[in-house]
Amino acid sequence: MLDALEIVTTVIVGLLVGVEFSVAFVINRILDALPGDSAQLGRSHGGRMLGALMPFWYIGSLVLSAIWAVAGWGEGGAGLVVAAGGLLLLSVIMSLLLLVPINNRGKTWTPENRPEDWKEQMNRWDRYHYVRVAVLVAAFASLVTALA
């Protein structure tokens, strides 16, 4: 049973990393290269869509790693799982304090109501997101290493 928990947790966190990496280095770059208001409209839509899904994915990943840490306590790799859980917790805290407030504003914007500094706010979100992706990659690497 522990083996299944380890694999499910690692796959779910790995998929989370993949989505967030894609947002940072693929999707937002594509959107930003589109003409006119397309970038802002795409980011607003993405904020609404992913903003509804990601809280469950982040909290679910954190809960699964906590269960793995408890169930596997005393076995090899438990410290790495605890470290991964700590990094996932950090990513949740970063999200709540830094990224979600910007996202909540941005997902309501249209070309008619967006603030003049909307690009600066999106750039700030991007910078925070790059750091969050690095934290998530470290968490995932810790989980993968704990499997060995």
Automatic annotation (TrEMBL):
Transmembrane region(s): 12-31, 52-71, 77-100, 129-147
Signal peptide (residue range): none
Keyword Transmembrane helix listed: yes
UniProtKB keywords: Membrane, Transmembrane, Transmembrane helix
Keyword Cell division found: no
Pfam families according to UniProt: Anthrone_oxy
The species this protein was found in: Streptomyces pakalii
InterPro entries, sorted: Anthrone_oxy
Listed name of the protein: DUF1772 domain-containing protein
